[in-house]
Design brief:
mainly beta; about 0% helix; about 20% strand; elongated
Length: about 45
């Protein structure tokens, strides 16, 4: 996700990588079965 700009990785003590989410809001709709959901009226 970091390559798409959704997550940034920052260094903290001892060189540990810590993920950080820069946007205020992210909406992600993913179909895990391959079939698109029909009839949802959650928004645009």
């Amino acid at each position: 996700m970091s390559q798409y700009g959704l997550v940034e990785q920052g260094l903290v003590e001892r060189g540990t990588l810590v993920p950080r989410v820069p946007p205020d809001q992210v909406r992600l709709d993913v179909s895990l079965t391959g079939a698109a959901s029909q009839g949802s009226d959650d928004g645009p």
